[in-house]
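Appendix B. One record, verbatim.
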Amino acid sequence: MKDLSFRKVHTRVTRLTKATCTLEAVNVGYEEMALVDGKSAQVIKISGREVTLQVFGGTEGIRTDAEVIFLGHAPTLALSDDLGGRFFNAYGEPIDGKYVPQGRRVAIGGRSVNPVKRQQPYSLIETGIAGIDLNNTLLAGQKIPFFADADQPYNAVIAIVALRSNADRIILGGIGLSNDDYLYFKALFTDTDRPEKTLGFINTTNDPAVERLLIPDMALTAAEYFAVEKNEKVLVLLTDMTLYCDALSIVANRMDQIPSKDSMPGSLYSDLAKIYEKSVQLPSGGSITIISITTLSEGDITHSIPDNTGYITEGQLFLKRDPEIGKVIIDPFRSLSRLKQLVIGKQTREDHPQVMNAAIRLYADAAKAKTKLENGFELSDYDRRTIRFAKEYAGQLLAIDINIDITRMLDITWALFKQHFQMEELGIRKQLIDKYWGKAKKSEN
């Protein structure tokens, strides 16, 4: 219990909105925590003596003579190994019915690691999903979002990625999760062979929406502890960043700020960058990799949330339902990992870059052939072969339920090449054709 004995109590609120209250106060810091009539609140604006707080539970029932007590610190998290295997709310308080962890308390939302103290990412992250490992390879220390429609199984996908990865620590930042999704993650993490390497900070749909703004900072403060002080490879999952941005919009609108594009606050880019720039590869070997979910409204990639996110992150992964195979795949056309060139063909087999490029080119040729067919044009033999290749390539490799290593992915792709094409149609270097074509077995599908 916080000792409030010597805190000055303010009892004159000059303005109330649905989410904020304003009063006169001095010696108050930005992002400082407070209690407004017993409700948790945080300083979000200081103008001279006028201080505005966002009240996380909303201001309903709060009067202008409410007691306001400033706590003298920003939101904090107790850092220790006791965080492992646990679930917490947006304030870092346990929600799993277990003891309160002890440790050194640190203010959340601190500065990112100085660029001169960073190292270029160099370590491959394998997920077993070919749409990622084969075509959009990820590295430790990278920041990358999944873009997905709201009806796609994005939480299941990032859970698969996390559990298959070689991360030392997995930290979930659940932003506006449904109770079902929270219980799904909790059961999944608890049932692993090393539940102590996972932890989560959770805001559900039953919790105040404004509390979602604390979740990424809580998750990343824990991540920095394990990466910097324990030299661990930390994977941070943030889902759903669209709901985080909606919470930003709620606060901005209730403060009568003039909205920018798509009703988002003008500070959206810097708000997102503050989070994503916490990804880092440290010279000591520790790293923070951020994989997030950004849900799209009817696939609208031009909305300001995915638009700003794409400028900040090092690529994006699109989830798409393929009607030909009836499964969700990683879309090879709209997905991109800007760091993959650092490892493919170096930490993976030498033919990886050439095989990847050839497969995507043939998949694109299949898309053109399907357009010709839809428009009533006659298909060539090559067109028909690319269409058959694309269906098998999606079913055997791009579907998110496939779990194989990168070498096997390359072998399957060579087999599909040999099944449907002549070697001169591939555009692959002769020395690689000579080495791998003869070894490839034609696909049996």
